[in-house]
Amino acid sequence: MLILECPCCGVAGEETEFAGGGEAHLKRFGPGSSDDEFHTYLFAKENPKGVHFERWRHANGCGKWFLAARNTMTLEVYGTYSAQTTEPPQKIKDKISAKVPGWSWREFS
């Protein structure tokens, strides 16, 4: 079971207190986007074995969205951070790099 900490209100809880919202850091396309861009946004998701970045909502708490970095194989949570950021804080990247040799941040398009 995942234990997540909401960075907005500071409450830590089991994953059942939160609602998953899919992959984080995706570029969202609005009106005027091409069919290919919209198709990619909807259907071309990463499903990595290892480090993954996700959106979560504190459904049974403050109700706010946040982002989490975790390992899909070990269920280790590297950290949570504000949903208003375009990439994880450096301390989370450093924690991942220390535990997963050879890992690097991929740029999202």
Automatic annotation (TrEMBL):
Which Pfam families does this one have? SoxD
Native species of this protein? Roseovarius phycicola
Name of the protein: Sarcosine oxidase subunit delta
